[in-house]
Amino acid sequence: LSAPGGVSLVVPQPNINATVAQNILLSVEYSCRGIATIEWKHVSSWGTTKIVEWKSGNYVNISTVYKDRVTTFENGSIQLLNVGMRDAGYYFITVTEEYGTNTYGTIIVNVYEIIYEDLHFVAVLFAFLAAVSAILICFMWLCNKSLHLFQKTTTHKLTASTTEEIELETIEC
Q: What does the DSSP assignment read for the chain?
C-alpha cells in the first residue's frame, strides 16, 4: 500500500494461525522519506488495545499489558510472545510520516488450543479396542483348539464302535 506522501507498507502474511503458548511474528515492511511513527493496535471481541508505538530510531512506548511480551523491529514488525486465546483478532498497524501522511495495514490472527483431552480420549479408546480384540482373538483360538480336540476324540470313539459292530456282525453269521 502506498500513500500519496511517499509512505508505503507491505504486509506479506495477512493471516496467521497459531496455537496457544506459541511466539508469532507480525511481519510488515514500511518505507518513507522522513521519520515515521509506527503504531500497533489489537482489536477483538474484548475491545481495542494499543500495543506499542514508536518512532524510527527513537523512543518505544509499549503498553503495560504487553510489556514483557512484545519485541519491536526497525522494519515495523513486532513479535508477540506466548500467545493466548485473547490474542486472537485483528492487528492494525498505522505508519505516519512526519509530514502527516498515513498508511494502514491489517493482520488477522487465529489462535487455537491444543486439545490434549481429546487426544487422551482417542488413545484410551484405541488401547481399549486393541485389548478387546486381543481377548477375542485368544478366545477364538481356544475355541478352535477345543473343537479340534473334541473332533479327534469323537472320531476315535466312532472308529472303535464301528469296528466292534463289524466284528459282532461277522461272528453272528
A: -B-TTS-EEE-S-SEEEEETT--EEE--EEE-SS-EEEEEEEEETTEEEEEEEEETTS-EEE-GGGTTTEEE-TTS-EEE-S--GGG-EEEEEEEEETTS-EEEEEEEEEEE---HHHHHHHHHHHHHHHHHHHHHHHHHHHHHHHHHHHHHHHHHHHHHHHHHHHHHHHHH-
pTM of the model: 0.65
Length of the chain: 173
Q: Does domain 8-114 have CATH number 2.60.40.10?
A: yes
Spans in the chain with pLDDT lower than 50: 2-3
Q: Where are the domains of the chain?
A: 8-114, 115-172
